[in-house]
Design brief:
- There is one protein chain.
- This protein is α/β, with parallel strands linked by helices.
- The chain has two domains: 35 residues; 223 residues, Glucose Oxidase, domain 1.
- 25% of the residues lie in helices and 22% in strands.
- It is built from six helices and 13 strands.
- Helix 4 packs across helix 5.
Length: 274
């Protein structure tokens, strides 16, 4: 018969074997959980060593389409008196760097809270029209610009966001950002309606982004690009910053949309992963 010492030795050996079995099973479970899953058409690996903030800091004086302030900030409590700081915001959804949800220009489109999360992380296609915009404030991103990008870089990735870099963000602290003339007509770049139609017909995009106050050029009277893009279930970003710091292709855009029920848009934190 095995004595106490023998019994202890056997117990330790069984414990050791059970521990090894548990570790093996755990390792297999981790391997299964972390194993790559088949990628859908709108999924791609994101490997980044740099994050570019594409968001302007929002203040009550930030330029708006109407020319009137769309943000009020009220202090409710202060740390010195109340032990904590809080503020109340009163603002329009379409202020600062913000998203236009499909419902903004349609009767049945998705509101901001209904945009699927997997459509808010997307390959970023950057089309540079800065040279033209410098010479002509009324220039637009056209189908020819899209074709030129494709010739130089290959097809637009599935599920992409196509961004216009006109360099207009550098005017954000001056009257030139709105660039209104004596009749109140604004002059700044935007997407041509034909470019929006081309992206809908020939590419699989989730949305577009621009560095000006509107997706349409400033002097537009019919919002043709809005009316083409948003009712098709796509979103648009306006007043995007720092696009000149982003590569032409290969970046991933991350769009932090406020999840407020029924919202037609909202101030948005936008980042590019490089």
């Amino acid at each position: 018969m095995c004595g106490l010492e023998c019994f202890d030795a056997v117990t330790r050996e069984l414990d050791r074997r059970n521990l090894l079995k548990g570790a093996l099973a755990g390792g297999m479970a981790i391997a299964v959980a972390t194993a790559p899953k088949p990628a859908s058409a709108r999924q791609m690996p994101v490997i980044a060593n740099r994050v570019v903030d594409l968001t302007h800091t929002l203040t009550p004086g930030f330029p708006t389409y109407s020319g009137k302030s769309q943000l009020e900030v009220e202090t409710l409590t202060v740390f010195e008196k109340d032990g904590y700081n809080t503020k109340k915001w009163t603002l329009s959804e379409h202020t600062g760097t913000h998203i236009d949800a499909p419902i903004h220009f349609s009767n049945k489109g998705a509101s901001a809270d209904q945009i699927p999360a997997d459509q808010l992380v997307a390959p970023l296609v950057l089309i540079d029209i800065r040279e033209r915009a410098e010479a002509d404030a009324d220039t637009q991103l056209t189908p020819d610009d899209i074709k030129a990008w494709i010739e130089a870089n290959g097809p637009i990735p599935p599920g992409a966001c196509v961004a216009m870099n006109s360099g207009w963000d550098r005017h954000v602290n001056s009257a030139k950002f709105r660039n209104a003339d004596d009749k109140g007509v604004m002059h700044f770049p935007g997407f041509h309606d034909d470019a929006a139609k081309m992206l809908l017909e020939e590419a699989d995009i989730v949305g577009i982004a621009g560095d000006t106050i509107s997706l349409d050029q400033g002097k537009s009277k019919d919002f043709a690009t809005h009316l083409t893009l948003l009712p098709a279930g796509k979103w648009g970003l306006e007043n995007v910053a720092n696009l000149s710091s982003v590569s032409t292709k290969g970046a991933t855009i991350v769009v932090g949309v406020p999840k407020i029920k029924g919202a037609t848009g909202g101030p948005t934190r936008v980042m590019a992963l490089m």
